[in-house]
Amino acid sequence: MNKRATTRSSIRKTHGCVACISLVAGLLLTTPRAVTAQSPEPASTRFVHRLSGPITLDGFSDEAAWQGIEPLPVTVYEPTYGSEPSERTEFRVGYDDDYLYLSGRMYTADPSTIRVNTLTRDTWSGDDTFGVVIDAFDDDETGSWVWVTPAGVRSDASISNDGEGRFNTSWNSFWDTATKVTDEGWFAEIRIPFSTLGFQDIDDQTVMGMTVYRWLGDRNERHTFPNHSPEWPFRRPSRAQDIVLEGVQSRRPVYITPYAVAGVQQSSELNAPGTAFELNDDATTEIGGDLRYNITDNLSIDLTANTDFAQVEADDQQLNLTRFSLFFPEKRQFFQERASVFEYSLGGSDRLFHSRRIGLSEGQSVRILGGARIVGRIGDWDVGLINMQSASEGSSPAENFGVFRFRREAFNPNSYLGGIVTTRAGEDGTYNVAYGVDGVIRFFGDDYFTARVAQTLDDELVRADQYDFADAATVSTRWERRRNSGFAYRLSTRWAGADYRPDLGFTTRTDFFRVRGWVVHNEFLEGTSAIRRVRPFQLGGSTSFRNDDGSLESADIRQQMELEWTSGSRLTGQVQWRYEDLTSPLEFADNSVVPIGTHRFVESEISFSMSQSNLLRTGLRANAGTFYDGWKAGFGISPTWNLSRFLELGAQLESNFVRFSDRNQGFDSHIARVRARAAVDNRLSVNAFIQYSSTDDLVGANIRFRFNIREGNDLWVVYNEGVNTDLERSIPRLTRTNARALVLKYTYTFIQ
Questions:
Q1: Where are the domains of the chain?
Q2: Alpha-carbon span 124 to 306, nearest angstrom
Q3: Under CATH, which number does the domain 31-246 receive?
Q4: Are 493 and 346 in contact (CB under 8 A)?
Q5: Measured over all CA atoms, what is the biggest interatomic distance in the chain, rounded to whole angstroms?
Q6: Which of 5, 173, 564, 625 has the fewest beta carbons under 10 Å from its own?
Q7: What is the mean pLDDT of residues 569-583?
């Protein structure tokens, strides 16, 4: 039974459904539980105490208002579920008119074991942690995740898709914290404004989902409230405890954040006669700003003018050994707030909307004049609206970008129906429109069915009278069991027409039909075993067919095994068989070309990652096998060393060696990355990121100095440089410096 089935009826009004999707149910495998202890359903709804007096945010939680609140019961989630906690932990929760408060008393017998590995904001390096996941809208799908270390280092992230897959660490928001370390352990308080969370008030009651946890970095141990079984990720919103707050009357502040930017830059450009590359100097000064306001308790608007993202971290260099485009994630803060509302995934990295398409063209920034973003809930509907306007630059016309996303709960609290519309219109008359409907339905247990249908409309096809309704569409379906323990599985299908073109989205291929699936079994071991989890198999594969003649375009079958130790270390092995039918040559570096034809090849890979509990740790990877009509071998290493809380060093080396002996062709590719994070305290830090790509013959440096004066008040100094390592790869000869920039950015947030 769903955790809210017995509690929502007294708190929430029954929702009707505005649409239905015809579904076909399959036969559900009957599987035993991997952990013999019965997986608990969260307890009935817990009413949270309103604080009886003021709280001084100092970490200690010793005020009279805290004394009347009983600590929450905690359970050991890992490394051994249900075992006796090695240290005493006390969590308390309270609230007043404007804030939600959490306190943690992390008693520690030997305070020297408390881990503080870094002082850099938004960085977790195995430190001891006190954190909370809050499903503010009680929708079982989304969550706000904030955590703090004993040194007061703050981090936050947003969660979508009920905690399945990756979470968004680029999200930041307003909240406060204080910590103290004593000879008894460490203590923390977190204060989160209701204006940050948003909430729904029904009959003078507000229901939220909540999971509170403590992480002990030196022993890979996690304490949680409520009782979380390892069958599910501890951060899963649908497994959170329902809490009830009464009479919450949040104020609605206005956040006004002006910024000023000053900088100088050099760029290598071909001179007018076309005889040489020359460095051109340019100085810039800009002002702009953002405004945020909560229209209602659960609906906010963000306005931006002359938007600038000078302080955003550089992308990682990637090597492409496939026929498809590489995907780069969104890192810009303006697009992060409840970004999960705008999600419309079609499988893998494919999606109907990818905010990175706004203001970026072929990896280069395009000036954004301004825009607006509204996100939240209206009645029973989750809604999101974005409208942005870019400037005309060079050969790129000014463009307007629009997105409207809407969805609502249907059938049960873990299901929804919705739709999306995206538009991209240029001042030269070009346009692209995409629209779709989707639904995620939880049928029973942890089985979910997802269906999405979308279509695009492009001016180029319309003007050429070549537009075909069916060819401009895509359809995807997925049936899955979401579970970490026992058997889990996924079966998905995807069809896309030849004219499917979502200009504001991301797609790897068109004109195909694909079937993909996998089945996996995980077993969590009990007792004193050094092994926490065993994955004896994860068997999966996919087949993709061309639409025009139904021929097989590509296929793969893979088998993976994994061991996870109670220390947190992991060992993974995989064997993969692949089939590719090329209708055009496939080009790689150094003029290596794979010819047209059918290719079958097999690759094996083994990887090992050390526990985050180690101050010096690394990941290792090695693979080898056939590759089209040749062979490929590769390895990777990614060490990280926390020399002290003031300095963390990290590096990554990825090397691949490809040979096509029959044609005497081949290439070596190396990508090296070095990261250094230095901090004086939790407000003053420097991040240096230097990377080298042998394929691009380019070294890039991104160095960012940040002085976080207070939340919302930052001084950034950013230095970027690109250096060409092979000056003769182009005629005329390249300059050594490809590009260089020094930028100073200052932001200050006024709260009215």
A1: 31-246, 261-447+522-751
A2: 32
A3: 2.60.40.1190
A4: no
A5: 80
A6: 5
A7: 96
Distance CA 676, CA 641 (A): 10
CB contact at 8 A, 492 and 516: yes
Q: How many CB atoms lie within 10 A of CB 122?
A: 16
Tokens of 165: 């897959």
Among the listed residues 13, 31, 135, 14, the one whose alpha carbon sits nearest the alpha carbon of residue 445: 31
- 3-state SS assignment for residue 725: coil
Task: State pLDDT tens for residues 103-120.
Answer: 999 999 999 999 999 998
Q: Are 338 and 353 in contact (CB under 8 A)?
A: no
Q: Among 345, 342, 459, 346, which residue's Cα sits nearest to residue 399?
A: 459
d(CA 586, CA 639) in angstroms, rounded, equals 34
Tokens of residue 291, six digits: 């405004």
Which of 543, 581, 544, 548 is closest to 471 using CA atoms? 548
Q: What is the mean pLDDT of the chain?
A: 87
The span from the CA of 167 to the CA of 143, in Å, is: 10
Output the 3-class SS for 296-358: ECCEEEEEEEEECCCCCCCCCCCCCCCCCCCCCCCCCHHHCCCHHHHCCEEECCEECCCHHHC
Global pTM reads 0.82
| Length, in residues, of the chain | 752
Q: What would the pLDDT profile of 522-566 be if each residue is shown by its tens digit?
A: 999 877 788 999 999 999 999 999 999 999 999 999 999 999 999
